[in-house]
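Quick one: Cystathionine gamma-synthase from Microbacterium plantarum, structure tokens please.
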Amino acid sequence: MSTHDSARGLASLAVHAGQQFDPTTGAVIPPVHFSTTFAQDGIGGLRGGYEYGRSGNPTRTALQVQLAALEGGAHGFSFASGLAAEDVLLRAALTPGDEVLLGNDVYGGTHRLIARVLAPWGVKLRVVDMSDLDAVRAAVDERAPRVLWVETPSNPLLRITDIAGLATIGHEAGSLVVVDNTFATPALQRPLELGADVVVHSTTKYLGGHSDVVGGALVLDDDALAEKIGFLQYAAGAVSGPMDAWLTTRGIKTLDVRMQRHSENAGAIAAFLEGHERVARVFYPGLASHPGHELAASQMTRFGGMLSLALESGEAARRFAESTRLFQLAESLGGVESLVNYPDAMTHASVRGTEAAVPVEVVRLSVGIESVDDLLADVEQALR
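--- reply ---
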């Protein structure tokens, strides 16, 4: 029996799934397989199914097993970036003329991929507030989309969508329900168990967790769709390299404990900000004042490390973002270090002027695992 067979809880799966010790040496940490090609036992006699690095690599396989186990899915796929994963999923699921119904608060790159890359090939896009199930149902009743795509919590306004409710609406219409679980991670939320069809991750963020590797992932149960995704992963080739896969696997092993600390720190900062006279609004589902708080509490185990705040103006927001010291001004999120981001001019600049535009007075914080007193002091001095 392997350690994976004995693992049941998420923390155990994060450490052991796909991570059997090396049978030759007994090394507890599986080696990184850098080989681009694999010797065959006669023509077509593949050892373990491996022939060429694009079609398969043992280190990538180990990560894919780990990803599937964490999300409770039958199939896991690892890609060179989160957008590469999204691109393959959408090309596997869509044909020209199909439509994506997208949340109006999403990562700017997702909107850009659909609106500017896939739209010229005949893919249609509509946008709706996914946290409002009545609005979603009305949009679906008007015209059933092929794909319902949601982030919950959303980026950057931390809106919460009822995954089970969305899945019901989507499946009644024959739509594929996709949940980007990057903000929550499987440590806090498991969308497949709530009825979603596919889970998407930018593994660059919390799964990798150390801001040192770019990657993306898909997890799903549908065998037919998985076959299409696997073919495109091979045929288009946007796969994660061996070292990238290994770094992601290493990051995942501490996911559970990191998400606990991220959530604790973010909760403390959100509570501080909510009571500050310079802050107009705090967006964090862990606050009782958040409109999605009760729903988040029912479908998440904790509230995560992401929060946003609105100041009195765009000028004030920019000044705050450029005044932090411990929070570093940078793109991305989900690493052990705290980051501050001004979405309108950074991560979401590509959606200015669209339905997904971010208010100019909003600043996003990715709260790391540093000492919370140091983080609070930094936020306080930046507000001054």
